[in-house]
Amino acid sequence: MMSDDEQGLREPAPTSGETRHDLSGNSRDGVRHEGREPNGTPDDAALAGDEADSGDDDSSHKGRKKKQGSFWKELPILVVVALALAMVIKAFAVQAFYIPSQSMENTLKVGDRVLVNKIVYHTRDIKRGDVVVFNGLDSWDPEVQYPQPKNPVSKVLHAVGSAFGVVPGEKDYIKRVIGVPGDRVACCDAQGHVTVNGHPLVETSYIYTDPQTGEQNRPSDSKFKITVPAGHLWVMGDHREVSYDSRGHIGDPGGGTIPESRVIGRAFVVVWPLSRLKTLSIPSTFSTPGLALENGVLPETPLALGLIGAIPVTLLRRRFRIRRSR
């Protein structure tokens, strides 16, 4: 028999359709009823979780907006930095140039963009066969006349476009070097070849060929004979019939040659259009044995003589030091 107190502690049996819950929210039948108190209202933990989720959504949305806003704020700075770097590269290393005329066909065509190495001639001399860009300011007239922009905005845009090879430069020319200082350049020998130091140039690999008829330009229709002055170059276009090059300036000071100091750099690659992507190498005819003779002396001879002369000087200095040490 149980006492009345013990009977009073016994929980009443659940009525039909009623489920008992303990304080942890577990039903007596082992099923957890989340988010509800026994009286059917949402518990504090569930509300806190919902608020936290809502807060996370808001913060992520604000973060995305902040990132987008910072990108647009930084974009002008990035553009300015990119332009500054491009100008530095253009000024000291590589510059793009637009081809405005037919004077270098078929090697270069109108509308081609080439890259010019502005450093190479600080490390080596200009070579025969190099395709060079030079400034003809106050000496050569432009081969193609373009209307000059009148308003300041157009002038600035033209200057920027010229700097990046989008539009042609006002006084920039591109030609192939045929003769370097000391060379004797003449046209023509009995076979119609241009000669350098008495050796004929075989120019069939680069002189203009008509794509319709297959006929190739002659090396030159005009005769000339010149010894290239010191510090100057004799240059010619590959499209000999239309190129206004050194041959057209024979009556000018320098006899048609251009100063080496006016050379901007060596064109070494065509970068646009992509279908014409190629390098601009020196044709093999400029490697002909004997072509490099300059006034009967090989270019390497002064260096060799200098080395030979340095040997006895070095020996004498060494002998003098030995005597002083005794």
Helix content: 25-40%
Provide the low-confidence segments as ranges.
Answer: 1-12, 14-38, 294-305
Cα distance, first to last residue? 132 Å
Shape: elongated
Q: What is the CATH third-level topology name of the domain at 85-297?
A: Umud Fragment, subunit A
Number of strands: 12
Please identify the structural class as seen in this structure. alpha+beta
Task: Specify the number of helices.
Answer: 4
Alpha-carbon Rg, integer: 42 Å
SSE order, as H and E? Answer: HHEEEHEEEEEEEEEH
What does this entry look like structurally?
By secondary structure, this protein is α+β, with helices and mostly antiparallel strands. It has a domain at 85-297: Umud Fragment, subunit A (Ribbon). Helices cover 29% and strands 17% of the residues. The strands form two sheets. Strands 1, 2, 3, 4, 9, 10, 11 and 12 form an eight-stranded antiparallel β-sheet that branches. A hairpin with a 5-residue loop joins strand 11 (263-272) and strand 12 (278-279). It is found in: Cell membrane; Membrane. Residues 18-37 have a biased composition (Basic and acidic residues).
Give a short summary of the structure.
This protein has 326 residues and is an alpha+beta fold.
Task: Spell out the key features of this protein.
8-stranded antiparallel sheet, 4-stranded antiparallel sheet, disordered N terminus, Umud Fragment, subunit A, elongated, 326 residues, alpha+beta
